[in-house]
User: What shape does this take?
Amino acid sequence: MSKETPLSYAARAAAIIAEPSNAVGRIRKTYGSTAPDGTKNGTLLATLYDTFPPSWDPAEPLWTEIDTLAVPLFVSSFERRGNASAVVQFDDFDREQEATLLVGKTLYREKACPEDGEDPQTDCEALIGYELTDRTTGRRGTVTAFYDYPGNPLLGVDFDGREIMVPAADGLIEVTSIRKRQLEADLPEGLFEL
Assistant: This one.
């Protein structure tokens, strides 16, 4: 059995912006005021989507994509303007010239872990559609379902037209590529004979 390899920072960041349901807003325009020296600050006006949480901790970074890279944006000030917009300023974007780089960019938020009693899509459900390769046999299949059995979560994986129940236990399945939607695992012996 292999050890679980946690997602690297870059892979985690890429996963945040790759998931459309993580989009929470868009930077509409600069909104800065003019300083006595004639420069404008980097305040921005953002449109907030319905997916933006009503209670959000500004200490949590928002994310955007710059030059195909996921970039965290740490908020220095955030003021809601109704339900659908906000005036926001980000660390490292203090002047209008810097903040202009963000105009038109989509804002993303990393989904928090579900609270007790909530039933959002689990991490395993997000794996539906991924290709799973068994390192031992070389067989490849597609994840088609997630079965949340208490104490024994399972992935339904279609191997050559036959659904095999694969344990979704920690350390068994490893995400090897989020962009290519690929997983690898060292599946237990005899799993294909069941």
